[in-house]
Recover the amino acids of this structure.
């Protein structure tokens, strides 16, 4: 019995291999393995990278990016600033949605307003747009509340839906979890994008087919996309190794070396725009999770500097991250507006200097506190926090590590219920202002909404505001660099490294990486 | 007899009520669904709004009564994570788990029972001793480790079988089955083995123990004394009397298979209820988790009820407190 | 208790033991693990819980006999640069502690309940046995998952981490009491009918005393066998829970936690991080099972 079983299996494998080879020649199917599925097909309900990746296949935005990451025409052919607070967008004629409906200014107005709704996760991108005015069927004006030079950049995140379709299926607002009925957009999508959603089995498989009447020639040759979420890392990698997948866009760092050795696979990497760093409670007089009566030594800049110097970043980079991290001294990745290479040098790893700094700060024996870390959010977050815990203990701190899944971790940060925490941050439109504004300013949402340190310094607030409200781009960048220098030297946060993005694919697949981890399906070729 | 059946039914209802209460309490305190809904980058006001919209700010007893009422009417709400009705999601996942559990169960019964009988009858033979040793290994390997090793061996090293998922499925009147396609069968092999190894070993050992017990009984001795052949004694008397406990064991094993399916599904990314449960725990998807618990409880209560009644039907003299404790875990 | 053990020892059991190589081997392996549990510092090259003694520089070193290995780390190191042999020794200690304590807890709950149910009968019996039935409706693994989930949610991060071991013991322990209760109840009902019990009752001994002094010693043999077998089950349960991330946190790893963490490195070529703890777990469970099997047969000559 065992014998026949194995023979049968081998036969099956041979058959399967034959089908794959035959299939690749005519219809190019791309099977993409991802760690987590998109939570919905609603384009304004979930602002998570994997969700955006899938949605970008089905939907278009007004503005897109070319291979150099420069803004490029999408559903809008061109745009201009009519006056300091009005952007005019000229729309592409002749575009149709997958359901056959014509695309027009009405749909743009609808989609932008939809992104402003309460249940939208994309409010931050359209918050400054006060009004959407339909000039004619192919022209819209966006009126902003004060000047906003970044409107076209922000619009790359706003996918356009068909208004009629949305109204017909009662999804005028982004997927709403109040309703006891199923939201149509959970499983259905009607966009103008290069691919059409065919079947959707959440957490298991989503199948897309090429849009034969796309408004521009598609460079790539993929005709069918199979989107396969596989949460378990070894399983996902096994599936790639056993040729059940063509492309994996979140490769665990430790498996990169093995994948590189496989002749049938190619591994590509790029510096990702995501910086991992630590933050501290910088407000309370007494650390909430510290020594009773020990005060809050983190408020002393020298203590934060001691933390920075106690971290053996080279070992983390080599052992934990397998080289897939670029150590950094600032919170902004290269390639973003406002980045300053001069700030990127880390304080050297020096245990003696760390101990000396603690002595100067009046805590020569170190002190006890709890470090909060997620264990399912960033690449190797758990391992990095464990390593840092050991390193801090070696210079005298007495650190307890508190690891949590993200579902519990982020609410804790929202409540500012932490003494030291780990975070990763990327700037969504290649501009350093977002991080300055949300991480460093005194909290007054949306200013400082991710300022979990509760840091507050009016002088720094003023510097950031000055840069933000500057319309001259060159001057704006100078002001931003000054602000970055100030906050970096203040050591409000302790940056660790920028993540390196790794995709692994079969050798016959050509898929260009983007540093914001965006899979541009129109560029993918399967040979 | 009717009183017995009624008391069993009453007990089942009580268990269900306790479980529903437990599910509610547990998942009210487990994690914050708001992160999943709004994402980590959300504003305070939006979070407060969602909390009140979901009714998470109401007093606990009100939330419970509301929950109980909805569960009784079959409404488990909408998944925080997937935004779809929970009953629909569960219904989609049931076929995968049922097919996996049945495959594991079939292996356990088809191999476990004959092996158990064989090792009982040929108690002193070298083969039986060896089998017994192997079975000991079988109950000593944790199933997650087994699954990891099987993937390593058959998917990665020898590239013979798929390492994840169900392969192609066919929709049969709303039941998505993987049993009608080659890739479906191929995908089933490793998970089914993973889940079955422990059960085969357990089944074999339990059947052997039961059989030995029966063979020692007086009526077997009398049968032998009457001059009946070994074969007749074994088949007609011993086997028939072993059947009763085997039914119970099988029922309990089915429960255990479903319990361990959680682990197997997680290792093989098998899109069944167990995987759904673990994914929901990670995302603090309260409605799905509580519905899973209630559903699983209902399944187990039903299995137990059926086993007890079968027991009664096969042998009315026996009441359901026989000597099968060892099988119960 | 000592009474029983002496009596058991004076029976054929010592002879049986000498006759069984499997039992001797299992006992030897188990003794080694016990030593690891009692005096880990004497066996482990490095005290792995001392954070000032581990260095990330040493991470991912292969076993000493392989190329690139270091003689300082016989079985290699893990992702944090911990000596794997030491981690296994400390991990086995946690696994055994959790296993033994949860079995003990099951015994401590199950035996008295079984005694009461068997001796008193009536409503106490009915109540206890109904509770047992309800408990049996659910497989131990699901009960343990739920229990640990509740604790995790109720206590939150650091508090849970500190209490992880006692909580896990509780979670596994409460799933096991039924078997003892049922077994003891059955045996008690038999013993209750015996003459010596009736005689003790006649001379005015109190019920509690009768249960403890007369019945208990006579029902302990099956309890001992069950406990041994269940120790293996409890250890597997602990490992499984830790593997899915519900059990022991990585800062004080058990064998199951080591396997969970190491599993990430199975494909990347650092197989030793998962394989060695896996083998250790397998050996431990196998030894306990072998011994339990042997004990059951030795104490129950009818089965031979």
């Amino acid at each position: 019995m065992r014998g026949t079983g194995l023979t049968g299996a081998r036969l099956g494998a041979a058959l399967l291999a034959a089908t794959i080879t035959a299939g690749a020649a005519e219809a190019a199917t791309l099977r993409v393995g991802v760690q987590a599925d998109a939570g919905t097909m609603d384009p304004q309900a979930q602002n998570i990278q994997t969700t955006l990746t899938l949605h970008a296949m089905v939907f278009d935005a007004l503005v897109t990016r070319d291979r150099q990451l420069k803004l490029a025409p999408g559903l809008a052919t061109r745009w201009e600033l009519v006056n300091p607070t009005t952007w005019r967008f000229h729309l592409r004629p002749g575009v149709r949605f997958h359901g056959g409906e014509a695309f027009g200014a009405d749909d743009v107005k609808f989609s932008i307003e939809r992104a402003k709704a309460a249940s939208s996760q994309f409010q931050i991108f359209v918050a400054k747009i006060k009004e959407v005015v339909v000039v004619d069927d192919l022209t819209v004006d966006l009126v902003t509340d004060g000047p906003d030079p970044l409107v076209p950049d922000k619009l790359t995140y706003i996918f356009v839906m068909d208004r009629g379709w949305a109204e017909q299926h009662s999804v005028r607002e982004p997927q709403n979890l109040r309703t006891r009925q199923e939201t149509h957009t959970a499983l259905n999508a009607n966009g103008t994008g290069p691919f059409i959603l065919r079947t959707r089995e959440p957490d298991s498989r989503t199948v897309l087919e090429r849009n034969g009447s796309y408004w521009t020639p598609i460079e790539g040759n993929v005709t069918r996309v199979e989107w396969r979420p596989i949460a378990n890392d070894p399983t996902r990698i096994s599936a790639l190794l056993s040729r059940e997948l063509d492309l994996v866009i979140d490769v665990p760092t430790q498996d990169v070396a093995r994948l590189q050795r496989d002749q049938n696979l190619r591994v590509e990497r790029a510096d990702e725009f995501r910086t991992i760093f630590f933050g501290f409670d910088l407000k309370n007089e007494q650390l909430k999770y510290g020594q009773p009566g020990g005060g809050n030594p983190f408020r002393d800049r020298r203590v934060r500097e001691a933390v920075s110097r106690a971290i053996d970043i080279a070992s983390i980079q080599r052992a934990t991250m397998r080289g897939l991290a670029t150590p950094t001294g600032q919170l902004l990745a290269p390639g973003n507006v406002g980045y300053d290479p001069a700030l990127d040098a880390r304080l050297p790893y020096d245990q003696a200097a760390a101990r000396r700094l603690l002595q100067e700060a009046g805590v020569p024996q170190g002190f006890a506190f709890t470090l909060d870390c997620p264990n399912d959010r960033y690449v190797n977050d758990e391992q990095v926090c464990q390593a840092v815990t050991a390193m801090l203990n070696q210079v005298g701190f007495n650190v307890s590590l508190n690891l949590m899944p993200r579902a519990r971790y982020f609410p804790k940060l929202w409540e500012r219920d932490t003494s030291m925490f780990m975070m990763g941050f990327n700037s969504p439109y290649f501009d350093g202002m977002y991080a300055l504004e949300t991480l460093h300013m005194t909290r007054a949402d949306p200013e400082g909404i991710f300022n979990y340190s509760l840091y507050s310094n009016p002088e720094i607030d003023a510097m950031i505001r000055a840069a933000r409200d500057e319309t001259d781009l060159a001057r704006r960048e100078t002001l931003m660099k000054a602000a970055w220098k100030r906050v970096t030297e203040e050591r409000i946060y302790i940056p660790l490294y920028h993540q390196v993005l790794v995709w692994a694919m079969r050798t016959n697949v050509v898929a260009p990486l983007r540093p914001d981890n965006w899979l541009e399906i129109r560029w993918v070729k399967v040979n | 007899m009717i009183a017995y059946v009624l008391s069993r039914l009453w007990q089942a209802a009580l268990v269900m009520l306790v479980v529903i209460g437990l599910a509610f309490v547990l998942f009210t305190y487990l994690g914050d669904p708001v992160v999943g809904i709004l994402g980590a980058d959300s504003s305070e006001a939006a979070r407060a709004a969602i909390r009140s919209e979901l009714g998470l700010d109401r007093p606990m007893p009100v939330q419970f009564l509301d929950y109980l009422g909805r569960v009784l009417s079959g409404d488990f709400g909408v998944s925080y994570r997937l935004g779809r009705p929970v009953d629909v999601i569960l219904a989609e996942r049931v076929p995968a788990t049922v097919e996996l559990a049945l495959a594991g169960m079939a292996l356990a019964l088809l191999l476990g029972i004959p092996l158990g009988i064989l090792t009982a009858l040929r108690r002193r033979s070298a083969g039986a001793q060896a089998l017994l040793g192997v079975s000991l290994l079988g109950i000593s390997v944790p199933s997650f480790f087994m699954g990891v090793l099987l993937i390593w061996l058959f998917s990665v090293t020898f590239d013979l079988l798929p390492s994840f998922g169900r392969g192609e499925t066919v929709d049969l009147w709303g039941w998505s089955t993987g049993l009608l396609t080659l890739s479906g069968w191929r995908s089933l092999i490793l998970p089914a083995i993973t889940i079955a190894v422990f059960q085969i070993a357990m089944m074999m050992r339990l059947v052997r123990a039961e059989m030995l017990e029966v063979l020692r009984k007086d009526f077997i001795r009398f049968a032998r004394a009457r001059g009946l052949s070994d074969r007749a004694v074994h088949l007609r008397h011993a086997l028939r009397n072993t059947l009763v406990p085997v039914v119970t064991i099988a029922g309990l094993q089915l429960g255990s298979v479903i319990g361990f399916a959680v682990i197997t599904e997680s290792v093989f990314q098998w899109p069944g209820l167990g995987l759904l449960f673990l994914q929901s725990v990670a995302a603090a998807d309260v409605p799905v988790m509580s519905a899973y618990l209630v559903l699983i409880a209902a399944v187990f209560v039903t299995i137990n009820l059926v086993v007890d009644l079968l027991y009664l039907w096969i042998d009315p003299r026996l009441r359901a407190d026989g000597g099968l404790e060892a099988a119960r875990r | 208790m000592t009474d029983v053990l002496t009596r058991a020892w004076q029976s054929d059991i010592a002879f049986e033991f000498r006759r069984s190589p499997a039992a001797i081997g299992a006992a030897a392996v188990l003794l080694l693990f016990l030593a690891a549990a009692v005096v880990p510092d004497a066996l482990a090259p490095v005290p792995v819980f001392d954070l000032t003694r581990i260095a990330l520089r040493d991470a991912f070193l292969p076993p000493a006999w392989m190329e690139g290995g270091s003689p300082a780390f016989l079985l290699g190191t893990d992702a944090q640069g911990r000596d794997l042999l030491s981690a296994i020794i400390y991990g086995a200690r946690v696994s055994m502690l959790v296993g033994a304590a949860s079995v003990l807890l099951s015994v401590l709950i199950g035996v008295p309940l079984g005694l009461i149910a068997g001796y008193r009968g009536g409503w106490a019996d009915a109540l206890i046995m109904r509770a047992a039935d309800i408990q049996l409706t659910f497989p131990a693994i699901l009960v343990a998952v739920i229990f640990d989930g509740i604790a995790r949610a109720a206590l939150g991060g650091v508090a849970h981490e500190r209490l992880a071991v006692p909580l896990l013991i509780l979670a596994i322990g409460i799933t096991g009491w039924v078997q003892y209760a049922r077994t003891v109840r059955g045996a008690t009902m038999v013993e209750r009918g015996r003459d010596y019990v009736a005689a003790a009752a006649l001379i005015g001994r109190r019920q509690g005393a009768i249960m403890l002094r007369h019945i208990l010693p006579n029902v302990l043999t099956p309890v001992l066998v069950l406990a041994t077998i269940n120790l293996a089950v409890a250890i597997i349960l602990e490992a499984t829970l830790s593997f899915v991330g519900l059990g022991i946190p990585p800062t004080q790893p058990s064998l199951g936690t080591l396997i969970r963490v190491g599993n990430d490195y199975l494909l990347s070529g650092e197989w030793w991080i998962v394989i060695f703890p896996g083998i250790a777990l397998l050996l431990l469970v196998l030894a306990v099972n072998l011994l339990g099997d042997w004990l059951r047969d030795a104490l129950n000559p009818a089965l031979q």
